[in-house]
Fold this sequence. Notes:
Elements lengths: L1 H4 L6 E4 L5 H9 L8 E4 L2 E4 L7 E5 L9 H13 L4 E6 L7 E3 L2 E2 L5 H6 L4 E2 L3 H8 L4 E4 L4 H12 L4 E4 L4 H7 L5 H14 L6 E4 L2 H9 L6 E3 L23 E6 L8 H10 L6 E6 L5 H8 L7 E3 L3 H10 L2 E4 L8 H8 L4 E4 L16 E2 L4 H13 L1 H15 L4 H15 L3
Parallel strand pairs: 1-2, 4-5, 4-9, 5-6, 9-10, 10-11, 11-12, 13-14, 13-16, 14-15, 16-17, 17-18
Antiparallel strand pairs: 2-3, 7-8
Helix pairs in contact: 5-6, 10-14, 13-15
Amino acid sequence: MKDVESTRLSTIIFITDLEDKEFRIKHLKNGLVHPSISVLVGTRCFTVAESKPLKVAVVIDVYDNATNGAVISTKRFVQLLEHHYSITIVTSGHPQPGRVVLPELRLPLVNGIIKNNNYTFARPQRCVLEECLLKMNLIHVETPFLLGTQAIKIARAGHVPVICTFHVQPENILYNGNIHSELAVRTLYRLFVERCYNRADAVICPSRFAEDELKRFGLRVPSYVVSNGVLPQFKPLRIKREDGFKDKFIILSVGRLARDKRQDVLIRAVARSQYRDRIQLIFAGHGPMKSKLEHLGKALPNTPLFHHLPPQEMIRLYNMSDLYVHPSVIEIEGMSVLEAISCGLPALVSDSEKSASVQFALSEKFIFRKNDPVDLSHKIDYWVEHREELKEYAEKYHLHSRSFTIDKSVVRIDELYRQYARN
């Protein structure tokens, strides 16, 4: 145990066996391990004899009632790190302990689009931000909009270190406003990079693809690839199907029902499939395209099902499906793909040059041409015909997902917080 006694203060121990909790904490209290080590049991963190924790402000426009990947990821990391740090959330919404709440920023011309996508921009108030941010050891900016840029400006003036996470691709914003101009994409990228990311001390990128994109548009500060990670409860389970699904080939697709996710391509692909009578489509998510997708799906023999489910029900859904299909053309990582393969559900993804999800494909058989329902239909038909091969890939995908567990990501975030925080 001599080596352990010299462990630096930021070390985190992960215990996956809950029965070990009391044993390990007892040994910590007996002084056999450095008393400032934090113990994470499953997804909970136990800090033993921790000295005064570092104060971190997490700056994000919306934190409540949002289902986009940025908010989901931020909440997960906050929940895992809040026992190790004193974390204050700076956001919009309703006042709660541990939060600094700002009013909503209303943009008359695009407010309807923003609301349809279940999003809110926060309106920064300088005096409120200064009172909160200038006493922090570190500021973590999650969104590159007006709140984020103002927080960075205040931090720079007060010599408070800043880390940003690249969560928002410009294409997410533009495509959902039905703007497909590459000039607009380049302009917005450069605006984000110059006004936000290059003014930070470091930038966290959820994938190598995300890091490459920022560097392509001029990122100059240090960057680190840290996956959003997948929680340990997303794992293979034996699920008994309901009677209505026993003879069906279930295809699952998860994500906001929005233009950039291209669920319409999947519906059109199934309509072309020679096995369309056997295929049951299930969409998990909600968004502005729901009514249009429901109308499009009426042409299928088996009407697509639309659900918005809590995580535990999603785990069940992943485990009762035969194939996951991700037609999205814009993904900074692809959290739902990662959840699917963690449950041993093989994933068929688009080859979009603006998506990182192709990183999860284990074979060309699991990649289809973006926006092409004909090619997707051929790939679906192949897997309906080769069910045994598909089952063989289930374990391969589960093993592949182990490289992206959230415990690895939390350890890396902890290291970066300690590296960049001011004393």
